[in-house]
C-alpha cells in the first residue's frame, strides 16, 4: 500500500476516527486513501480554521484526537488561530499537513513555505515524514504524543511523494505517556495549608474542571471553606445539577484581584498562577495577592483527579460537597438585552447540553443564568483567538451526536469562521447558534473606557463599529443552508430558542441586543 | 507623544496612507493614534486575511505599501495565507502586529505565542520594537524595507507598552534600496542569444509584466521572433488595447512543457526558471526543456524596465511591437457555462478595469475572451493560497477609486475570506464580483482525473462537493450589505453584469455554471 493508506489505517488503529478536512492537490492521495477506509469519517470544512476548531471541540469532548487535513503552509496558517486555542486547551489533536514532494521542495514552487516553523508555534510535537516506509510509524507516534498527558497538538507533515509511494504498511499504536502521580508529600503539604484556617482558594484548570475532580474539591470546600475557582477560560467546565459550583476567575485584572483578595493560600490543580489576560498600564501582570503562598498540587501533566481525590480523603473524609440549588430563570419578557437573552437561555437550557461560549461581552449574565440548570458542559475560548465558537460547536456535535449543542456567539467573533455554518448544515449537526448581534466590537470599547480614553475619533468609530452596514446573520446562515430567524424581543428569543432546540439539525437565531459598552 | 502616535506619524510621513485593520486590545493605543492622524485611512476588516489581502491589492496597484493592523500571533496567523501571496507577488506591505507589553510576555498569558517565528515565514524583514523612543525609527526602516526593490513584506511587532509609553517622536523616511542596474555584459549576452536565430522565449515576471517592459519586449519580439511568456501567476499583468500580448505559462506541467517545447534560449526577466506548480508522479519539476540555455537578464531586484529597454535598443532599434487586434466576444446567449460567462465578461469589460482573477477552473476561457478588450490590469493568485480574490479586490479598489474592479471568484475560494464583502459594502467600493458557482472543488477533481484515479468513493465525494447544501451567494452577499443577483443563463449574466458595472458601489453576481471536471 502507499504511504497515505498506511497513515490512514494507522490513525484508525490508534482510535482516530474523524478527519476534519480541507485538502488540496498535495493531499489527494490521502483523500483517495480515505475512500478505502470508510470507518474514518471525513468532514468537509470550507476553511482550515473550521477544521482545526472542530478538531479542538471533538478532542475536548472525547479525550481522543481528531485528525485535520490541511494544505501546505497557507492551509496550516489558516488553521493556526484555532490550533492556538487547542494548544491552550491541551486538546489532543493530530494535524496532517500535506507538503510538496520531497524532490520538489528545492525549486521553491509558489506554495512553498516554512511549514515546520509554523507547525512548531502551535504543536507540542512535530514530525516531517521522509519516506513511505516510515510514515505510519511517524503517525503512530504523533497520536501517542497527542494523547500523552495532558494532551497536545501533534503535527505530521506529509510530503506528496511519501503519500503516493508504495511499500508502506500500517504501524501499531504507540502507548502514550500517562499522567504523573503526584507525590504524597505534595498532597500532604497542601492538606496542611487547607487545615491552616487561613483563607484558601483552589484554582482549577485542565481536567480539574471535570466531574471527578469537581466532586473531590466540592468535598474539600465543604470541609475547609476553601473557595473554588477555575481558570478564566476552561477548556471544558462541567456544571449544573449535581455538581459543586465553581467560579471562573475574572477576565479583567481588577475582577480577578477582587476574587483573590485576602487569599493566603492558593492551591493550583491543573492551573497556573493567575496572570492578567492583557497587561494594563498601572496594573500588575501576576495576580497572586501579596502575602499569598502558592501551592502547586498538580500540573496538567499530572494525575489531577487522583491528587484531588487523595487530598479530599485527607481533609474531608466524611464530607459531601455543597451543591447549588436547582433553579432556572423565569422566561423573560420585554426588551431583548444581554441580560434577558441569558435568562431565556437559562430558562431553556436542555439536559446534557454542550454550551460553546464565545459570547464575549454579551455573555456577562450567562454563567449566572445557567448555574442552577440541568447538567451541562461549558467550553470556552481558551487561547483568546476569536473565531472559535462555530467550529468548536461542529466538533462537539460530531463527538457527541446525542447531545444538544448550544453555540453562543458574539457577532464580531462569528465572522472569522462563519463558513462553519455550512459544515453544520452539511453534517446535519444538532447545533443551535445564538448570535448576539450588538453590531460592535464592544469589548474594545470597554477597554477604551477602562483606559479612561476620551470618547473617540473617526478611526475608533470606524474600526469598532459593525453597524454600517448591519450584518444580517439570518441571510448569511440561510445562504449556507442553516434555518435562521431574528429575535428582537425577549419573547422572540424564548419562542425561537424553544423551537430550534426542539427540532433536530442546525439553527441560527440572531439575537439583536444593545452593546454593553 | 506616545509610541503609537509616533509610529502612525512616521508611516504617514513615509507615504503609508491606508491601514487595513483588525485590532484587539493590544492595538488600542494605535487605534487611538489614528484618531489623531485623520490622513491615515483606517479600513475595518472582519478577518485578518481580508486585511492582508487588501494590503496586497493596494500595494500591487500603487507600488506603495499599505499597513495592516493585526492582533498578536493568532491575528497574524489568520493573515498569513494572503501574506504568503503578497510575498510571492513582491508586494510592498507593512504589517503592524501588536503584542503583549514587554514586561507581560514572561507570564505566558493565553494569547502569547511565537509571533516572530510566524512573521519570518512571510516577511523579508522583521523587527520587534523594544522601546517607545525607537519605535518610529523601526517603522521608518520597515517602510524602506517594504519598498526596496523589488518590494517585500515588512513586519513590525509592536508591544502594547511601546505603544502606550511616552517620549517618542516621529522618524524621517529612510531611503529604500533602488533596483540594481543590470551590467551591459549581461544585456549583451542576451542580445547575442536573441540574434542567434534559434527559438527563443522571454519569460516575464515582477514588473516586467507592466507597460514599460511590455513595450520593450514587444519590440524585441517583433524584431527577433522571440516568444513572449509570463509567469503562470503574475502579480499584475497589464493587458488589452495598445499592449503586446503575453501568454501566461500553463498551470499544469504538461501545458507549460508544450509551450516551451523546442525553445533553445529562455531569457528570464523578473521571472525564475519555470517549475511545476505541484510535483506529479512521472513528470519533471523543472520545466526548462533539455538543451535549452537559460539566460538571466534581470531578477526582480534589478532594474527590469531599464534592462529590457536597453536590450530592445540593441536588437530592435527600429521595430514596433505587434499589437493584438481589438476584438470583443459577441454577448453570448443560451446556457451559462464557464465559456459563455467568459464571453459575457469579455463583451462588457470596462475600460481601465482592474480584474482580480481567482476563478480557477471556471476561468479557463477568461484570458482569451478579454485579450482584445480595452486596456486593463489582471491580478492573479501569486502564491496559490486561495481566498485572495475578495480581499485583493478591496485593496485594489481603495488604491484606484476611479477604476472599476471586476472580481472573478471561484465559489470554493470565495468562502475562505467571504467577510471581505462587508468591507466592500462598508467602504462603498466599486467592485463587481462574479462568483462562478460550480458547487465543487473542481480543480481537485481535475487533479484526480490527471492521476488516472478511479471515479472515487465516499470520502472523495464528500470532500470535493459543495452542493449539499448549495451555497446561496446572493443571500450571503445581501447579509453583508452587498446587492446581489443570480445568473443561470448567459443572457442573465450579460444583463446583470451590465447593470452592476453601470452602478457605483459593490455588487455580486452568482453565475451558476457546470463544473468542468
TrEMBL record, chains A, B:
It comes from the Bacteria. Gene3D superfamilies: 3.40.50.970. Residues 378-510 form the Thiamine pyrophosphate enzyme TPP-binding domain. Keywords: Thiamine pyrophosphate. CDD domains: TPP_BFDC, TPP_PYR_POX_like. One of its GO terms (molecular function) is magnesium ion binding. Pfam families: TPP_enzyme_C (PF02775), TPP_enzyme_N (PF02776). Residues 1-104 form the Thiamine pyrophosphate enzyme N-terminal TPP-binding domain. Belongs to the TPP enzyme family. This is Acetolactate synthase large subunit. The lineage of its organism: Bacteria, Bacillati, Actinomycetota, Actinomycetes, Kitasatosporales.
Amino acid at each position: 500500500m502507499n504511504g497515505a493508506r498506511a497513515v490512514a489505517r494507522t490513525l484508525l488503529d490508534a482510535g482516530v476516527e474523524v478527519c476534519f478536512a480541507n485538502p488540496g492537490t498535495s493531499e489527494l492521495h490521502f483523500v483517495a486513501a480515505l475512500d478505502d477506509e470508510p470507518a474514518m469519517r471525513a468532514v468537509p470544512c470550507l476553511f482550515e480554521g473550521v477544521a482545526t476548531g472542530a478538531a479542538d471541540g471533538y478532542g475536548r469532548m472525547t479525550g481522543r484526537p481528531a485528525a485535520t487535513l490541511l494544505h501546505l503552509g497557507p492551509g496550516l496558517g489558516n488553521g493556526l488561530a484555532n490550533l492556538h486555542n487547542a494548544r491552550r486547551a491541551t486538546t489532543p489533536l493530530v494535524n496532517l499537513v500535506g507538503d510538496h514532494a520531497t524532490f520538489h521542495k528545492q525549486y521553491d514552487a509558489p506554495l512553498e513555505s516554512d511549514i515546520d516553523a509554523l507547525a512548531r508555534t502551535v504543536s507540542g510535537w512535530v514530525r516531517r515524514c521522509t519516506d513511505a516506509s516510515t510514515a505510519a510509524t511517524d503517525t503512530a507516534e504523533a497520536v501517542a504524543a497527542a494523547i500523552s498527558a495532558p494532551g497536545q497538538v501533534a503535527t505530521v507533515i506529509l510530503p506528496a511523494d511519501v503519500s503516493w509511494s508504495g511499500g508502506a504498511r500500517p504501524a501499531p499504536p504507540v502507548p502514550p505517556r500517562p499522567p504523573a502521580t503526584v507525590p504524597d508529600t505534595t498532597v500532604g503539604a497542601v492538606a496542611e495549608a487547607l487545615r491552616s484556617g487561613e483563607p484558601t482558594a483552589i484554582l482549577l484548570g485542565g481536567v480539574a474542571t471535570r466531574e471527578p475532580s469537581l466532586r473531590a474539591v466540592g468535598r474539600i470546600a465543604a470541609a475547609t471553606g476553601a473557595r473554588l475557582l477555575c481558570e478564566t477560560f476552561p477548556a471544558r467546565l462541567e456544571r449544573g445539577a449535581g455538581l459543586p459550583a465553581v467560579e471562573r476567575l475574572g477576565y479583567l485584572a481588577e475582577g480577578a484581584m477582587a476574587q483573590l483578595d485576602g487569599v493566603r493560600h492558593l492551591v493550583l490543580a491543573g492551573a497556573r498562577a493567575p496572570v492578567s489576560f492583557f497587561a494594563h498600564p498601572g496594573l500588575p501582570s501576576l495576580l497572586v495577592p501579596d502575602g499569598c503562598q502558592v501551592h502547586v498540587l498538580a500540573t496538567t501533566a499530572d494525575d489531577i483527579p487522583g491528587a484531588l481525590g487523595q487530598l479530599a480523603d485527607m481533609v474531608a473524609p466524611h464530607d459531601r460537597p455543597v451543591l447549588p440549588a436547582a433553579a432556572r430563570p423565569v422566561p423573560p419578557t420585554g426588551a431583548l438585552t444581554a441580560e434577558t437573552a441569558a435568562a431565556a437561555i437559562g430558562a431553556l437550557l436542555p439536559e446534557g447540553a454542550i454550551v460553546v461560549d464565545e459570547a464575549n461581552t454579551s455573555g456577562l449574565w450567562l454563567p449566572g443564568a445557567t448555574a442552577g440548570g440541568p447538567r451541562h458542559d461549558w467550553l470556552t475560548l481558551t487561547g483568546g483567538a476569536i473565531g472559535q465558537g462555530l467550529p468548536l460547536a461542529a466538533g462537539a456535535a460530531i463527538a457527541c451526536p446525542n447531545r444538544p449543542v448550544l453555540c453562543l456567539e458574539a457577532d464580531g467573533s462569528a465572522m472569522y469562521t462563519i463558513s462553519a455554518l455550512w459544515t453544520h448544515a452539511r453534517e446535519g449537526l444538532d447545533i443551535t447558534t445564538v448570535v448576539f448581534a450588538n453590531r460592535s466590537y464592544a469589548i474594545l470599547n470597554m477597554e477604551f473606557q477602562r483606559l479612561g480614553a476620551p470618547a473617540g475619533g473617526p478611526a475608533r468609530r470606524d474600526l469598532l463599529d459593525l453597524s454600517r452596514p448591519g450584518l444580517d446573520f439570518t441571510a448569511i446562515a440561510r445562504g449556507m443552508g442553516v434555518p435562521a430567524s431574528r429575535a428582537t424581543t425577549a419573547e422572540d428569543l424564548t419562542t425561537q430558542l424553544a423551537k430550534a432546540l426542539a427540532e433536530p439539525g442546525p439553527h441560527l437565531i440572531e439575537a439583536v441586543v444593545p452593546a454593553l459598552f
